[in-house]
Design a protein that fits this description.
By secondary structure, this protein is an alpha/beta fold. About 30% of the residues lie in helices and about 30% in strands. The chain starts with 9 loop residues before the first strand and ends with a helix.
Length: about 250
């Protein structure tokens, strides 16, 4: 295997992180001393049972929640810990991190095209250029014929594809996805996962996908299994295994 196949530098790292919540008189540990680095050009799959901490990890890595202990580093520079006011990182998230959640969370009074376009305009992209890129992204996911439809006029799978296009609008260096194919059929799900693979390979994006779907194991470079808030196993995915045989 030649060096060109390996992921390069670390984009985002969660180091020694825990996350606890108080529920009445009880303390719930969602994450327990977890460390995981996400590298440029790598497509990582995170698997494990419900309640194992997968989504909590994404929220911390994506700077949407602070860890209770531990640190988050961006390109080896500490950027967040338990005392960080995450509102101060809002602009950073918008320009560096793309999020795809289980629910599409589209703006109901905007069309599919406008939902993607607004993500660009917030980052000061001129309207004409933003509209052109939004159309390109929707077409990539087979939605060019739906660009003038509002969310209520779209199926659940179509709404999710719009949300994926929106997450990619500002060319993030880190893409975090929580069950992005749950509402999609096999063909559309494969299309989305292959788009993630292309982002990692051609644009060196660090992509991390939480999933329960075993169909995508062949696309991942690395599969991280979690249980009880901890990493219990890390193994090569099908993409890495294929490269190792070259």
């Amino acid at each position: 295997m030649t060096a060109q196949y390996w992921p390069s530098h670390v984009v985002m790292e969660v180091r020694g992180a825990s996350k606890t919540y108080l529920t009445g008189a009880n303390t719930v540990t969602a994450l327990a001393d977890m460390s995981l680095a996400l590298r440029a050009g790598e497509l990582t799959g995170i698997v494990g049972p419900s309640g194992s901490g997968k989504t909590t990890f994404l929220m911390i890595a994506g700077l949407l929640e602070p860890p209770s202990t531990g640190h988050v580093l961006f390109r080896d520079t500490p950027i967040a810990d338990a005392g960080t006011r995450l509102n101060s990182l809002r602009d950073f998230r918008r320009t560096h991190v793309g999020f795809i959640f289980q629910k599409a969370n589209l703006i109901p009074f905007l069309t599919a095209l406008e939902n993607v376009q607004v993500a660009l305009e917030i980052n000061d992209v001129r309207p004409r250029a933003a509209r052109a890129k939004a159309r390109e992204l929707l077409a990539r996911f087979g939605l060019d014929h739906r660009e003038d439809n509002y969310p209520t006029q779209l199926s659940g799978g179509e709404q999710q594809r719009v949300s994926i296009a929106r997450a990619l609008a500002n060319d993030p260096v880190l893409l975090l996805a929580d069950e992005p194919t749950a509402a999609l059929d096999g063909v559309r799900g494969r299309q989305v996962m292959e788009a993630f693979r292309k982002l990692a390979d051609e644009h060196r994006v660090a992509v991390c996908v939480v999933t329960h779907d075993p169909r995508w194991s062949d696309i991942f470079d690395r599969i991280v299994e979690m249980s009880d808030g901890r990493v219990v196993e890390t193994r090569p995915g099908g993409a890495m295994k294929a490269r190792l045989t070259l």
